[in-house]
Amino acid sequence: MPTAQAQLMNGTDLARTLIDDTARRAAALTRDQHVVPTLATVLVGDDPASVTYVRMKQKRCERAGLRSEHVALPASTSTAQLVDALGVLSADPGIHGILLQHPVGDHIDERAAFDAIAPEKDVDGVTSQSFAAMALGGNGFASCTPGGIIRLLDHYAVDPAGMHAVVVGRSPILGRPVGMLLLGRNATVTYCHSHTRNLGSIVSAADLLVAAVGKPNFIVGEDIKPGAVVIDAGYNAGNIGDVEFSSARTRASLITPVPGGVGPMTIATLLAQTIDAAEPQTTAGE
Ligand code: NAP
């Protein structure tokens, strides 16, 4: 008998739909308000991976009819200088969303920098205020990867309510907020991290697994509960996720591929949230 294979959660197609919708909204704002929605991208230093990520986000902006304005700062930038630069962008009425590319360098207080972004322009969902909104259910932007994961779950009609969701990883931009969003959807959430004991047995209890570790093929199929929904947010060298895809696919009911699962949803969410930010800013004076 052939082995059962999980259904793929296609982030590429869903992201395209979201970007098309974003492009329509951007065109309407430009036509009706004569304002081109603008995302400021801020990069400290010249880390090649960060340069590539920022360039990719700028290109997607262009394709969706958004303007991007790039601020390149030297690696020697201090926390105070970065906070100042973000303050200037926050006060600039021509900028509707701000993305500070992570990581910013060990000598910079990243939390202070993130919190220098005006919450209404925090389209990447990195400020403490946005985190509080994700945790407490108030108004605010979701971190883009967690927000993209929730959009994927919604699209594939996965209702987390009552599910045991296990999140492996607790970073401020990914693991922690995705767990908060799942809790907000009434999942029973367990966080795992580098101090977790018996990881395999916790993973094997998951109805919904989110892998956000940054270690290639770290979670193997035999640890996955048959029928589980598996979200692989990991992205490692060689296009490899945190979940061993071939073995996991024989156990899960739904699974995100890498690439083509969570990754495209992150940028699509960033662009959609830039329009979400621009609309009230451009119509506030009417
Ligand atoms: P991170 O900041 O390095 O966090 C990794 C997390 O994994 C930490 O919470 C760490 O625990 C935990 N961890 C490390 N070793 C572990 C172990 N042996 N057992 C259990 N947990 C362990 O990474 P990140 O920024 O969240 O990114 C995670 C992955 O997602 C990476 O592959 C990254 O490339 C990918 N990512 C993808 C997107 C996308 O758009 N697709 C966006 C962002 C990130 P401690 O807290 O105890 O150290």
Automatic annotation (TrEMBL):
<comment type="subunit">
    <text>Homodimer.</text>
</comment>
<dbReference type="GO" id="GO:0009086">
    <property type="term" value="P:methionine biosynthetic process"/>
</dbReference>
<feature type="binding site">
    <location>
        <begin position="169"/>
        <end position="171"/>
    </location>
    <ligand>
        <name>NADP(+)</name>
    </ligand>
</feature>
<keyword id="KW-0658">Purine biosynthesis</keyword>
<dbReference type="GO" id="GO:0004477">
    <property type="term" value="F:methenyltetrahydrofolate cyclohydrolase activity"/>
</dbReference>
<dbReference type="InterPro" id="IPR036291">
    <property type="entry name" value="NAD(P)-bd_dom_sf"/>
</dbReference>
<protein>
    <recommendedName>
        <fullName>Bifunctional protein FolD</fullName>
        <ecNumber>1.5.1.5</ecNumber>
        <ecNumber>3.5.4.9</ecNumber>
    </recommendedName>
</protein>
<dbReference type="InterPro" id="IPR020631">
    <property type="entry name" value="THF_DH/CycHdrlase_NAD-bd_dom"/>
</dbReference>
<comment type="pathway">
    <text>One-carbon metabolism; tetrahydrofolate interconversion.</text>
</comment>
<keyword id="KW-0486">Methionine biosynthesis</keyword>
<dbReference type="GO" id="GO:0035999">
    <property type="term" value="P:tetrahydrofolate interconversion"/>
</dbReference>
<keyword id="KW-0028">Amino-acid biosynthesis</keyword>
<feature type="domain" description="Tetrahydrofolate dehydrogenase/cyclohydrolase NAD(P)-binding">
    <location>
        <begin position="143"/>
        <end position="280"/>
    </location>
</feature>
<keyword id="KW-0368">Histidine biosynthesis</keyword>
<keyword id="KW-0378">Hydrolase</keyword>
<keyword id="KW-0521">NADP</keyword>
<dbReference type="InterPro" id="IPR000672">
    <property type="entry name" value="THF_DH/CycHdrlase"/>
</dbReference>
<comment type="function">
    <text>Catalyzes the oxidation of 5,10-methylenetetrahydrofolate to 5,10-methenyltetrahydrofolate and then the hydrolysis of 5,10-methenyltetrahydrofolate to 10-formyltetrahydrofolate.</text>
</comment>
<keyword id="KW-0560">Oxidoreductase</keyword>
<dbReference type="GO" id="GO:0006164">
    <property type="term" value="P:purine nucleotide biosynthetic process"/>
</dbReference>
<dbReference type="GO" id="GO:0000105">
    <property type="term" value="P:L-histidine biosynthetic process"/>
</dbReference>
<dbReference type="Pfam" id="PF02882">
    <property type="entry name" value="THF_DHG_CYH_C"/>
</dbReference>
<keyword id="KW-0554">One-carbon metabolism</keyword>
<comment type="similarity">
    <text>Belongs to the tetrahydrofolate dehydrogenase/cyclohydrolase family.</text>
</comment>
<dbReference type="Pfam" id="PF00763">
    <property type="entry name" value="THF_DHG_CYH"/>
</dbReference>
<dbReference type="GO" id="GO:0004488">
    <property type="term" value="F:methylenetetrahydrofolate dehydrogenase (NADP+) activity"/>
</dbReference>
<feature type="domain" description="Tetrahydrofolate dehydrogenase/cyclohydrolase catalytic">
    <location>
        <begin position="9"/>
        <end position="124"/>
    </location>
</feature>
<dbReference type="InterPro" id="IPR020630">
    <property type="entry name" value="THF_DH/CycHdrlase_cat_dom"/>
</dbReference>
<dbReference type="InterPro" id="IPR020867">
    <property type="entry name" value="THF_DH/CycHdrlase_CS"/>
</dbReference>
<keyword id="KW-0511">Multifunctional enzyme</keyword>
<dbReference type="GO" id="GO:0005829">
    <property type="term" value="C:cytosol"/>
</dbReference>
<dbReference type="InterPro" id="IPR046346">
    <property type="entry name" value="Aminoacid_DH-like_N_sf"/>
</dbReference>
